[in-house]
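Figure S7 source data.
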Amino acid sequence: MHTLLVTGGAGFIGSNFVRYVSAHAPHIRMIVLDALTYAGNIANLDGVKNVEFVHGSITDEKLVDSLMSRVDTVVHFAAESHNDRAITQPRIFFETNVMGTLILLQAAVKYDVRFHHISTDEVFGDTALDSTEKFTESSSYKPSSPYAASKAASDHMVRAWVRTYGLRATISNCSNNYGPFQHIEKFIPRAITNALCGLPIKLYGDGLAVRDWIHVEDQCSAIWEILQNGHIGQTYLVGANCTINNAHVVNMLEEILPQYCGEQKITVEHVRDRLGADRRYALDPHKIVEELGWKAKHTDFRKGLSQTVEWYANHQDWWEAYKPDVERSYANLGQ
Ligand code: NAD
Ligand code: DAU
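Tokens for the predicted DAU complex:
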């Protein structure tokens, strides 16, 4: 691997991954292709060396063709990623996550480029709250939201391109990431920044939905491991065995936040749940642990959460300008 195309490299996980590669393999040249939608921020790449930034869309066939001809590997993060938005504006999710992936796959076949596709545990749907089931690589696809359906379609396409055209591809399906540079529309950064602004933390529905949390740096190390040693045609589930319900995450935040909030009182407001809300995700990362020897490093969730709170408290300039717009959009949804 000499030259890497990173789609969506100005977003949350993509930018963390670019930093990770730059730190661990400084000899690799990276091209970041990002459309800088509301979720992308060029400042996320400040100070990173060996990166050429290209402002453009994965749905631009000509641009994708010319970039693909210059690289040997692609890691495909670019997507519309937020469930609440997918419920009100599903079309762009299919244009980006399905058609964009199609265009990348065709170009990757043309230039015989190694392809790693970033996906989500949401393709497997959810389980009941009292279930102990964990998703594995052989779980059935059962997406329940428009976002998850678009990601499921893209996973199926990657497998079809491996079988039909011999594309050298791998897929990883990861659980909920948290950490620095995550957009403040997402649960943890929204809760932190609400508290820092003196707004109530918003808890959807009964607050009992369960997510399986992983620090973004662990997601990046897993992707790196798959690029080095993953077997072509294989899928790897990536998670850190950290299932917690949302109310419990909020309880931890209520303990961590006071030192950053001065006199402001931290309050919590229950708001209406997402339409069709998924109850519980949990995944079994055995395969990547056993076959590739990958291990999550951030196994203390409370510590990772404290560091994340500290990051948002120290980077108000990164998020405060767009906080009012994000909260206005949520207010329109009653959330
Ligand atoms: P994000 O929304 O923070 O970033 C997405 C990036 O893609 C942004 O920089 C955006 O500008 C860019 N983008 C959007 N449309 C584009 C287009 N047409 N062309 C080029 N760039 C475009 O998302 P994220 O949370 O970093 O997620 C990255 C990937 O990881 C997604 O594929 C998502 O499905 C997957 N994933 C996310 C999580 C999570 O917890 N955040 C978990 C598992 C998988
Ligand atoms: O599981 C992986 C997925 O995790 C990724 O594929 C998605 O891209 C990513 O956005 C994330 O999806 P979720 O829908 O699980 O994440 P979100 O942060 O939007 O919500 C997490 C939980 O918190 C969910 O049960 C809804 C709830 N929630 C969310 C917000 C924004 C709240 O209670 N309050 C909130 O303010």
